[in-house]
Amino acid sequence: MTNSCTENRVTRWMGVLIAITLLAGTRIAFAGNDAADEASATIRPEAIRADMRFLADDLLEGRGTGTRGHEIAAKFMASEFEAMGLDPAGDNGSYFQSVPLRAIEPDKERTILSLWRGGKELVLIFGQDFISLVDPGRTEVSVEAPVVYVGFGITAAEQSYDDYAGMDAKAKIVAFVSGAPPQFEPTMRAHYSSGAMKAANAAAHGAVGAMVLDSPAMEQIHPFKERVSDLAFPDMRWLDTKGQPNDYFPELRGAVFLSMEATAGVFQGSGKSPEEIFAAAKLGKPSSMALPVAAKIKTVSKFRDLRSPNVVARVTGSDPILRDEYVVYTAHLDHLGIGQPVNGDRIYNGALDNASGSACLLEIARAYSKMQPRPRRSILFVSVTAEEAGLLGSDYFARYPTVPKNSLIADINIDGNLALLWPIEDVIARGSEHSTLSIAVREAAARLRLDVSPDPFRELVFFIRSDQYSFVKQGIPSVFPSAGTKSSDPNIKPQQIITKWRQTTYHKPQDDMNQPFDFESGAKYARYNFFLGYLVAQKTEKPAWNPGDFFGEHYAKKAN
Length: 560
What we know:
Blueprint: H1 2-29, H2 31-40, H3 45-55, H4 68-84, E1 87-88, E2 96-106, E3 112-117, E4 120-123, E5 130-132, E6 140-149, E7 155-156, E8 161-162, E9 173-177, H5 186-193, H6 195-204, E10 209-213, H7 216-221, H8 224-230, E11 235-238, E12 255-258, H9 260-266, H10 274-283, E13 289-315, E14 326-332, E15 337-342, E16 345-348, H11 351-369, E17 378-384, H12 392-399, E18 408-413, E19 426-430, H13 437-447, E20 451-452, H14 468-472, E21 478-483, H15 494-504, H16 519-538, H17 550-559
Parallel strand pairs: 6-9, 9-10, 10-12, 14-17, 14-18, 18-21, 19-20
Antiparallel strand pairs: 1-13, 2-11, 2-13, 3-4, 3-13, 5-12, 6-13, 7-8, 13-17, 15-16, 19-21
């Protein structure tokens, strides 16, 4: 009997050990998922609030690029990365990549625009009729030439669309409206709306100057009076090793943006009213023509060369082969700085845009720093400068990365955590439809029971307006996740909230910490971005452009 009991006890313990072993085996099989869940749970709304509170404080004076406030913010980000145990991945073993920049301000008194018609000159007034689009390579430049209207100023062979068809733009000043034809799919429309694309196309067609015309559609998005107010902040370019500015087309010897009233004057005597021109543009129908007017543009500017840092940190991956590849997270740290007062406040704190994204970047980095095991691929965190000045910090990093360029496999960009404005139920992932990143986008959403929705604001061309576009132009699949417009509360109307926020708060001093933020929802958005990057880092196959995709064909092949 004793032997029998002992045998039974042994049998029972063996069964328990086998069960434990099986359970352990199950845990090992799902260890990656468990580690990701545990790490994502460390992303705390309180931490996002605390980091935002510091970064958006008046002490930092709006974190303007090249200012002391931005330098303080950059030191803060680097200190946080160091405290987490992340490796420095900037220049010379530091957390910083120094970006050479040129700040350009127009000399309003000496900048001139006049229109000539029938031997008569009409002198336009800076700030009332026009503003100059500064020349980043010359402090003084001028041009005098006939004007031709070229629709949107776009040539898109793959869309069988050409505003320059049948037009001789050589030695002319080309006038065009903002935007792109509505029949283009959203990201293609955004791509061709880029000012740099239009300037390059004008130069390629022999133009010597450019006029960007205001329109009712543009007045709704970015009114002329706001463009005048924006002159409080300098235009900027990054400089290459030879001191040449980016996106510079010296063939164009003068460029201006016209008000609605001045735009109407350009079409006087053309046989078409501005209303007819705008209606044709709205339908996406080219209506290019020579105009019975010539223009004289003289642009005078002041230059100031400076440097501003990107902050770069790394979590090294666990796979001995895949760790040499990087999933990149970007979020811009800069905002506008100190500008024109609005309701007595001159500090543009940039709480949502983009202290929120920077705070999310820190929490995502902190989650990765605690993961065991680490993801298979390495993760790179880049807190970029000068986004508000034209995506300059990210563009410089994407062209001159601090790690081997061919090791960058994807970018996930965090800009403006709109989830702070209401409890989110869905996400938008701009750009994901062009690559296999769409798979991870859906998988990450499923982890948090979120829907993935199409972009409801196509006309705002967000795809080219944030830092992921810098990586797209270097042939790197990229995605810009944002809060969607669904809410479980029928009393909350997210689209109305976004529209009102853009009208009353976006790029104004009122974007501060006095807004009614939902930090739990903001943390949920951060967790989504964490899972998205984790899933990309774990997959054996790296992200690839979809077969025949325009951006893959146009940029990835060029980069290779």
